[in-house]
Structure formats: structure tokens, C-alpha cells
């Protein structure tokens, strides 16, 4: 599915990625551009996107197979995990640095974008260390690292700390120094998300402030890495629809054009990605967008044309395998999804004491909520004979709702629709159950503007709406997710097997409305 409308010839329309690709950073290697984004507690993590024109992007893999320590991420931690990564290319290797707010700063690296990627290396341990970005200075051979702070973990925010770093990225060479104190800049607050560069004899830090929904993008420069830095606001909302244009990355094309990729917070849709033109003014400061205001439509980068593309969403699950667009809500375990000779995703009905609350389940397979009005469809067959076994299609966030099939105590299968508010500890019915002879259903979510969702089901006698329209809700930092799941009640005690049969999903589709 393509997540944006058609732009006039020779132009592009923002957002270029109309879904929750949070905290994007970008790098150019030769004629190719690569982007990564936050993945928080979902697995696999650190998505890797590729483009040749900065407008059309495809998902080519992930840099992180599992979150560590494995036991900590054996259950969902939706707003934790991988925060705000930076991607760089140095010494013929790709490098990604990120902050886990509860553990510290990590890095992984690889000879090629598709790997193999190293296991996470903890570069700096500590609470509240976030948004790290490295710099290898080609002029001096020295390496540096800058990072921000999360007040929720450290009690500190609105400041940037700088380190010298060993050129091999293995360690930091000092205790760190406060290099930008946002409290000393009148009107600035929540300074975060720094990206570090060397340009025109200056050290540059591009960093947003003012909060993700209402803030602005700043630029800082100094002749010395440790400062002092002078600052300037270089991108802000003004009279546009782009609230709080927030952190991202600068990239220069092979022909010397400058562009800036950043995100916009859009509630349940998460953090969608915009592309801004960038130039340098007479005083050497970057100018982003239309003289500092975000653009909606703009001339395309001067790069060879590329076929329209977007990260995949649809899936036929050939051989029972799922595409790169899917992520589990925690580190996966063997046996959750079974490969087989046909098509269709065969999910095991995992026994769980948390069957009443999808937010607590690690075995939910998710992808991003599309940022435009869309219809989401999947076909489901419940194969489990276990009383209470169920499977369905969900809209998952701080509140959640789902529609699917459940096996009753009498052996019959019913179509059920359940939901839970953000403060509720367990789900309840959103509509009366309906008999589902044959244990099959076609499920549909119609997503309208404002992320207002309507469930629809078809049991073979035509589509019928179910329950009330509801608004998808995000978590604190993560946009709402689409999810597929299969489960059975109970914690597995007294059972020789934690699994209780299976359910099969086929023909998953997202189409624009």
C-alpha cells in the first residue's frame, strides 16, 4: 500500500512516510540512502529503509533481531527499548547508535545494510541516556558522541552531553561534558534528539526543542566540539499544518543538494516523516523548508527518478512466513508461528493468564497504523478445539479493540468484538457475539480521518458492521498498531503443552479509502 497521494509531476508531497517511523535518521552511501527509526519494545527492532530518491522508501530489514537483556523484554514494554537511533557509515561499515532509557547507550555495526549486524554493545551505562549520535571527524581522525537526557529516568533534561569516543566505537574516552544547556537559552525547553555533523569548519548539532507536538528544530554551531555553541531556530510550524516539526537528520546528495528528514507527531498515527529542502544562508546557517517553515509540496530532489514505492503492508504469508513489516510486541519464542506448505499465517493459540488484555501479551504480531483513510482486511479460520481459544484482528494502543473468533465451551465458534479503555484492566464485549458456523470469518477495519475505526465482519452472508465507531489511541510514545493474535486462557499449569491449537490468517490487505 502507498501511504501518500499523487504529487504533481516533478514534485513530492509530505509526509513521505505516512505512518509511525518515529525519530528518523538518514545517511547516504554512494547513490543509496538509508533510514532507521525508533522501534521501542517491538521485535525485530531498528528498521532499515532504502531509497534512491529520498521520496520513495522500502523496508529492507532490521538491525536488531532481539532486545537485550532477553528476559527483560520477554514481555511487552511498549514505550521502552530502542529510542531515537542514529545511523552513520564509517570505515566501510554501517553504525547505529541508540539509547535505551533504562539501560544506556548501545551500538551495533555491520559491513552491509542487510548485515550481519553485531550484537548490541553497551557503550555507556546509565539511566536516562537517550538520543546518541556519533561523529568521526575526517579532518582530525578523532571521534565524538553527543546525547540527550530523559528526565523520567535521570531527573535531568534540556541539556546535551558530549564525549570523546574511541575511533573504533567501542568506548568513550572521558566522563562527558555539558556542551549545550537549554536552561540558559531564553524560551528553550525539552532540548533533545541531537544529530552531530562537521561542516564548513564548524561542529554542528541539529536538535529540536519545545516538545514533540508544539516545538521547533534548532541548529547549534561551534568551532570546538565542547563549545561554546551559538543557536538558531531553523524550522518551525508558523502558519502551516505541520505541528512541532521535530528531530531528524541532514543528508547531502552526490550532486551537493541538502535535505532534512524529520517527523511530525500525529496522535494515533504516530510520528510521520517529512522531507524538507535545505540550504545555507549568507551567515552560514542552515535554512530548512520554505525559509524556515515546513513545505507540503516541493520540487523533488535532483536524483534519478524511482518507481513509486512504500514500505510493504500486504501479506499472503507464503509458507506460513510473515513479511518484514511485522513485529512482535516482545522477544518472540519458538512455536508462535508455524511454517507449512501452503499460504497463510498459522499462529499458535498460546495459553496465557493475560488473555483478557492484549496489551500484556508478547505474542501479538503488529504493524503500523496507516496514516491515511484505509480499509484493513484479513481472513481468519480458528482451528483450535480448546474452549476459550480465540484469535483476531486488533487495533492496539493505550486502549484497544479487536474482532475475531472464539471457541465456546459447547464446541461452537462465535464472532466476538471486545475492547478495553485506557484505564481498564481487562476487556469487555463491544457487541453481542454472533454464531460463526465453520469457524471462519472475513474481518475488516475501516479507518477514517482522525483514526476513527469501525469493525466489520463477513461470516459468508455479507459484510455487517460491529459495535460502535471508536478512535484508535497511541501509547505515550508509540502510535497505534494493527495486530494479529491467537491465544487461549490459562497459564499452562496442568497442561503438558502451553499451546492450544492454532488459528490461520490469510490475505492480509490494506487499501486506501
Fold and architecture overview:
- This protein folds into two domains: about 20-250, 5 Propeller (Tachylectin-2, Chain A), CATH 2.115.10.20; about 325-510, Jelly Rolls (Sandwich).
- The protein has about 525 residues and is mostly beta strands.
- The longest helix is centred in the N-terminal third of the chain and has 4 residues, at about 150-155.
- The protein is globular, with a radius of gyration of 23 Å.
- It has a 15-stranded mixed β-sheet that branches. It has a four-stranded antiparallel β-sheet with strand order 2-3-4-5, with no helix packed on it. Strands 6-7-8-9 form a four-stranded antiparallel β-sheet, with no helix packed on it.
- The protein has one helix at about 150-155, and strands at about 10-15, 25-30, 30-35, 45-50, 60-65, 85-90, 95-100, 105-110, 120-125, 130-135, 145-150, 160-165, 175-180, 195-200, 200-210, 215-220, 230-235, 250, 260-265, 270-280, 285-290, 295-300, 325-330, 335-340, 345-350, 365-370, 375-380, 390-395, 400-405, 415-420, 430, 435, 440-450, 450-460, 465-470, 480-490, 500-510.
- The N and C termini lie close together (about 10 Å).
- The model has no long low-confidence stretch (mean pLDDT about 95).
Amino acid at each position: 500500500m502507498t501511504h501518500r497521494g499523487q504529487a504533481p509531476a516533478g514534485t513530492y508531497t509530505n509526509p513521505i512516510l505516512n505512518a509511525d517511523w518515529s525519530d528518523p535518521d538518514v545517511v547516504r552511501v554512494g547513490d543509496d540512502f538509508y533510514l532507521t527509526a525508533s522501534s521501542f519494545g517491538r521485535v525485530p527492532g531498528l528498521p532499515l529503509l532504502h531509497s534512491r530518491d529520498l521520496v520513495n522508501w522500502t523496508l529492507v530489514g532490521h538491525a536488531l533481531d532481539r532486545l537485550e537483556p532477553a528476559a527483560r523484554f520477554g514481555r511487552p514494554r511498549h514505550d521502552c527499548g530502542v529510542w531515537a537511533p542514529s545511523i552513520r557509515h564509517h570505515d566501510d561499515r554501517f553504525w547505529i547508535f541508540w539509547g535505551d532509557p533504562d539501560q544506556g547507550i548501545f551500538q551495533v555495526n555491520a559491513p552491509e545494510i542487510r548485515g550481519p549486524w553485531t550484537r548490541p554493545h553497551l557503550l555507556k551505562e546509565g539511566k536516562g541516556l537517550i538520543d546518541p549520535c556519533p561523529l568521526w571527524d575526517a579532518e582530525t581522525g578523532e571521534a565524538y558522541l553527543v546525547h540527550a537526557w530523559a528526565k523520567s529516568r535521570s531527573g535531568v533534561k534540556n541539556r546535551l552531553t558530549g564525549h570523546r569516543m574511541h575511533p573504533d566505537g567501542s568506548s568513550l574516552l572521558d566522563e562527558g561534558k555539558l556542551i549545550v544547556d537549554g536552561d540558559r537559552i531564553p524560551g528553550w525547553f525539552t532540548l533533545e534528539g541531537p544529530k552531530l555533523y562537521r561542516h564548513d569548519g564548524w561542529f554542528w548539532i541539529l536538535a529540536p526543542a519545545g516538545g514533540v507536538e508544539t516545538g521547533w528544530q534548532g541548529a547549534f554551531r561551534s568551532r570546538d566540539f565542547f563549545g561554546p555553541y551559538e543557536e538558531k531556530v531553523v524550522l518551525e510550524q508558523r502558519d502551516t499544518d505541520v505541528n512541532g516539526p521535530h528531530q531528524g537528520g541532514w543528508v547531502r546528495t552526490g550532486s551537493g543538494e541538502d535535505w532534512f528528514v524529520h517527523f511530525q507527531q500525529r496522535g494515533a498515527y504516530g510520528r510521520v516523516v517529512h522531507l524538507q529542502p535545505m540550504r545555507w544562508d549568507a551567515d552560514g546557517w542552515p535554512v530548512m523548508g520554505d525559509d524556515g517553515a515546513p513545505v507540503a509540496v516541493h520540487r523533488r530532489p535532483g536524483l534519478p527518478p524511482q518507481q513509486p514505492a512504500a514500505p510493504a503492508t500486504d501479506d499472503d504469508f507464503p509458507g506460513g512466513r510473515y513479511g518484514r513489516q511485522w513485529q512482535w510486541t516482545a522477544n518472540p519464542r519458538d512455536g508462535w508461528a508455524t511454517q507449512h506448505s501452503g499460504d497463510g499465517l498459522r499462529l499458535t493459540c498460546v495459553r496465557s493468564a493475560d488473555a483478557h488484555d492484549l496489551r500484556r501479551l508478547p505474542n501479538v504480531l503488529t504493524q503500523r497504523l496507516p496514516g491515511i483513510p484505509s480499509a484493513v482486511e484479513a481472513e481468519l479460520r480458528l482451528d483450535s478445539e480448546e474452549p476459550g481459544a480465540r484469535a483476531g484482528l486488533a487495533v492496539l494502543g493505550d486502549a484497544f479493540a479487536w474482532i475475531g473468533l472464539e471457541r465456546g465451551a459447547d464446541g461452537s465458534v462465535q464472532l466476538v468484538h471486545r475492547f478495553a479503555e485506557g484505564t481498564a484492566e481487562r476487556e469487555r464485549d463491544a457487541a453481542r457475539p454472533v454464531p460463526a458456523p465453520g469457524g471462519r470469518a472475513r474481518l475488516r477495519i475501516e479507518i477514517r480521518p482522525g483514526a476513527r475505526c469501525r469493525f466489520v465482519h463477513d461470516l459468508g452472508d455479507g459484510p455487517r458492521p460491529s459495535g460502535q465507531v471508536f478512535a484508535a489511541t497511541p501509547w505515550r510514545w508509540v502510535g497505534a498498531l494493527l495486530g494479529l493474535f491467537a491465544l487461549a486462557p490459562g497459564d499452562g499449569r496442568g497442561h503438558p503443552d502451553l499451546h492450544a491449537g492454532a488459528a490461520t490468517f490469510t490475505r492480509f490487505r490494506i487499501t486506501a479509502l
